[in-house]
Amino acid sequence: MSDVPSLIALIPRLRRYARALVGERAAADDLVQDTLERAWSKLHLYRHGTDLRAWLFTVMHNVHVNQVRAARPTSPLDDEMPELAQRAVQGDALLVRDLERALAVLPAAQREVLLLVALEDLSYDETARTLGIPIGTVMSRLARAREKVRILMHGKGGSKLQVVK
Amino acid sequence: MSEEQNLVSEADIQAWADGRLAEGRRAEVEDWLAARPEEAERAAAYRALNEQLRAQYDPVLVEPVPERLEGAVLRRPRWRAAAAIAGWLVLGAALGGITGWQLHAQRAAAPLAQADTPLLAHRAALAHATYAPEVRHPVEVGADQEQHLVAWLSKRLGAEVRAPRLEAEGMTLVGGRLLPRDPGPVAQFMYQSAPGRRVTLYVRTEAPDQRETAFRFSREGNVQVFYWIDRKFGYALSSADLDRDELLRLANVVYRQLNP
Lengths: 165, 260
What we know:
The complex is a heterodimer of chains A (165) and B (260).
Chain A: H1 3-9, H2 11-22, H3 25-41, H4 52-71, H5 84-91, H6 99-105, H7 108-119, H8 124-131, H9 135-154, H10 160-164
Chain B: H1 2-7, H2 10-17, H3 23-34, H4 37-57, H5 67-74, H6 82-85, H7 91-107, H8 109-112, H9 117-131, E1 141-142, H10 146-157, E2 171-179, E3 186-193, E4 198-205, E5 216-220, E6 223-230, E7 233-239, H11 244-258
Antiparallel strand pairs in B: 1-2, 2-3, 3-4, 4-7, 5-6, 6-7
């Protein structure tokens, strides 16, 4: 019961994260709504005393992964998979000064890590647990995400990308 | 230098950008960066990106939350806490959500009819309209005998009932009465504010298998009712004097007090 106020209070946080993750406002709110509905139905799985916010991000992650997979079966969810969009941008040497567009170019798996750390201020450890990945993967995705955004927005370090990759 | 370089990892640079290095380590990494302008520039860009992300997306935090997101909460009757949530919403938006819910419920009235909840609201509104205007005998047992009142009503209902304390909301208990109802009796508590505005809480026992519901809103003439079912009891809070958001706020207080 004591979680109720925090659940409601967390909706704006979920919306902020979803907006950065998905980009478009209505689609982001769709994701939040699906997350809330799934969270209510899975509330018995939430362990009291643990970070409710991180748990909701986990739920959102799962919902998002399922949605992206359903919509585009070949979408590059994981950084091991081909990153077609990213390659196209590099090939054109396009400078993306718009942060939103730079984020959109990132593979979802890297975008999630970057946003949980940089926007939502989750610790690396929390991020790892939220996404169900090792902390080493968190650090490598974080490094790749940041470097890609930097290159997209500043057009620097073309040669460095290979090192970072 | 290569040995020194090994001491600062990529993870250190990321952690520096996030401001998550311990004091001593941070100084070491900054020394290392100071000797490498290109790396320093890269690290600074990472740090700046954090601020850019905040600047870009923090405004979402203060946007009004769309009704449909709160509706995702209000439409979850099986979760008993859902009823309590209403009180934590921005009131205007909450009311919009409830209105939407209510319209939905009306549209689906036929399959819901068996639930008997609209009857709960209807009877509560009638009982309110009957006794709230009473000047001389609004209640059978006055608040000056509150213990007796509660014990008496509990005995007649066959379950322990409680009279919520609403002084903090400017409402004092006037007293209560027993109402006839088929098959069992019903308790009615009456509250009054200093300006003489009245609210009644209608309490009846429910079949043991009744599920919890979220708050529902009903209007009967000039009487407005928020009603809900919580395990053993069905509750309805009615008033013709309070506006709807005042009544909702009060309903939340009642709910929380009855579910500590």
